[in-house]
From TrEMBL:
Name by which UniProt lists this protein: Thioesterase family protein
Domain Acyl-CoA thioesterase-like N-terminal HotDog: 21-104
Acyl-CoA thioesterase-like C-terminal domain location: 131-253
Species annotation: Oerskovia merdavium
Pfam families linked to this entry: 4HBT_3, 4HBT_3C
Length: 256
């Protein structure tokens, strides 16, 4: 079980588990976000820079794209001894679909200085199971295991994990696997039912103060709809050991 199968040096075929939620004949962006993070880390390791850790992933989503083969491209925009900026792009057919710019920083031992992280949230084992298929269709939604504690519409804590590999027969890091689940923030603690209101996100930016560990990704989420058609999803990102960072997604809000 995997989201993609490699078909060439830079090309990948999506499986049925990538099926979208807004439209099931399109790709859900979540696995693609994980795929691009995986390629950033793979390229880093191949260049002998495993001393660098990803500290920011900033994705721009250029539009929808069908369940067809995708191509990828990676460029080191700013090489350096202690920090690097890397850009990766995913295209489908002749259309650009997603671009990510990733900052990587050299790791060092700052244990004595660590502090200031948000408090932990109730863990996945103590959070009630929830079936996202009651709200969303699609292969990706069917592929994830969700725990949810909803405080009110648009506010709640969600834990997400998957047994599916990002790429068939390839090992991906916990960071890349987590990146492939981050987009769930905008769909698991909704303010309005997606059959009544559309609220797709144009982007996703995640800042990390440490790399995630384990399979579960926790999203302590707040969704805001503004008065002029814009919205914002924000979440503190957790693993089972505590907070690892934060994310934000800009939304386009349209009544259906």
């Amino acid at each position: 079980m995997a989201y993609f199968r490699r078909t060439g040096v830079t090309t990948f075929d999506p499986t049925e588990h990538v099926g979208g939620a807004w439209r099931t004949d399109e790709q859900h962006v979540a696995p693609s976000l994980g795929l691009l993070a995986h390629l950033v880390e793979t390229d880093r390791d191949e260049r002998g820079r495993s001393d660098l850790a990803v500290t920011r992933l900033s994705y721009d989503i250029w539009g929808t794209y069908p369940l067809r083969e995708v191509d990828t491209r990676l460029t080191v925009l700013r090489a350096g001894r202690t920090v690097e900026l890397v850009e990766a792009e995913l295209t489908c057919g002749d259309r650009r679909a997603i671009t990510v710019r990733a900052w990587l920083a050299q790791t060092s031992d700052t244990t004595a200085l660590a502090g200031g992280a948000p408090p932990p949230v109730t863990g996945p084992q103590e959070t009630p199971a929830w079936d996202p298929a009651t709200v969303w269709p699609g292969g990706f939604i069917e592929s994830i295991d969700v725990r949810r504690a909803l405080v009110e519409p648009g506010r709640g804590t969600v834990w997400v994990r998957t047994d599916h590999a990002l790429v068939e027969d390839e090992d991906a890091s916990p960071l890349a696997r987590a990146a492939g689940l981050l987009d769930a923030a905008n769909g698991m603690s909704v303010r309005a039912h997606p059959r009544e209101v559309a609220f797709p996100n144009l982007d996703l930016t995640a800042h990390l103060h440490r790399s995630p560990r384990g399979d579960w990704v926790g999203l302590d989420t707040t969704v805001t709809f503004g008065p002029t058609g814009a919205g914002l999803t924000q979440a503190v990102v957790h693993d089972e050991h505590g907070a690892v960072g934060a994310l934000a997604q800009s939304l386009v809000v349209r009544p259906i």
